[in-house]
């Protein structure tokens, strides 16, 4: 039995939570190493794409 179309998977919810957390970190610690931040965002984007591929 497949999941209903349009139902976000757990990974997508985790991505949204992590994205909000990162945005808060940017506001309070904007001077942190931007290269590390870029790597984190790149890893999250890859995870989100994997999630969408799993749905479709």
UniProtKB/TrEMBL annotation:
<keyword id="KW-0694">RNA-binding</keyword>
<dbReference type="InterPro" id="IPR028147">
    <property type="entry name" value="NICOL"/>
</dbReference>
<comment type="similarity">
    <text>Belongs to the NICOL family.</text>
</comment>
<keyword id="KW-0732">Signal</keyword>
<dbReference type="Pfam" id="PF15161">
    <property type="entry name" value="Neuropep_like"/>
</dbReference>
<protein>
    <recommendedName>
        <fullName>NELL2-interacting cell ontogeny regulator 1</fullName>
    </recommendedName>
</protein>
<dbReference type="GO" id="GO:0003723">
    <property type="term" value="F:RNA binding"/>
</dbReference>
<dbReference type="GO" id="GO:0005576">
    <property type="term" value="C:extracellular region"/>
</dbReference>
<keyword id="KW-0964">Secreted</keyword>
